[in-house]
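ZP: hey, is the manganese (II) ion complex queued? I don't see it on the tracker
AM: it wasn't, my bad. submitting now with these inputs:
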Amino acid sequence: LVSRKKKSEDTVININGELIGQGKPSFVFGPCAVESYEQVAAVAASIKAKGEKLIRGGAYKPRTSPYDFQGLGLEGLKILKRVSDEFGLGVITEIVTPGHLDEALDYIDVIQIGARNMQNFELLKAAGATNKPVLLKRGLAATIDEFIHAAEYIMSKGNENIILCERGIRTYEKATRNTLDISAVPILKQETHLPVFVDVTHSTGRRDLLLPCAKAAIAIGADGVMAEVHPDPSVALSDQQQQMDIPTFDAFYDTLQKFMKNYEIH
Ligand code: PEP
Ligand code: MN
């Protein structure tokens, strides 16, 4: 169902008025984790100031260590909903188990399925049975074929609104947190009719690489870029190394807009 052979025209997904996959790159910014109303609202204000329509933030955090911050759960979803209503932003947030889906649906606009859950087939099927768009991230060590099959699980349950997100894969290279597989973007665009995003934050794990990798993503034809923004990354409860503070985000955004203009990407 996700194959280009099945449907030749690009899938376009309308999220809060943002048309994803229509040609011009979309942007998803927001903190790694929802920590407080004030924290999310500060980031929302900076996103809104750029005229962007979407915000991300994790309420259920899939952490490597069980002793690290696990997210605010339902409380976090309520914060996202409040910010969404106040700032008019569509909310993208990760759901980690089918058991949380029902309670989450009232608060969110897009279900994110994280890298660690790309082959959680029960979660894929449950998300596929909802009417919310799904942002599906590539697994830590998933091949492109496995990634496409994961999207197929979602669509097989009737949900056609799926965004694929390349977020780096595990290789022997330690200079970056993961290795951004940039050629996955045109391959996924050729093989499927779905919009393809690049998460520059989790693929690189390095603040200094966010801008060049975002440029690369846009230049190679990505439909969107995701990056993390926090009012004060030095005190963030997760991903301190790679979130942008708000002035850095402002510069990142403005530089990308100029880049797109120069290359007539619109
Ligand atoms: C995230 O986007 O919050 C996240 C945990 O990313 P990933 O699933 O790609 O590691
Ligand atoms: Mn993160």
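AM: back. The radius of gyration is 17 Å.
ZP: great, adding it to the tracker
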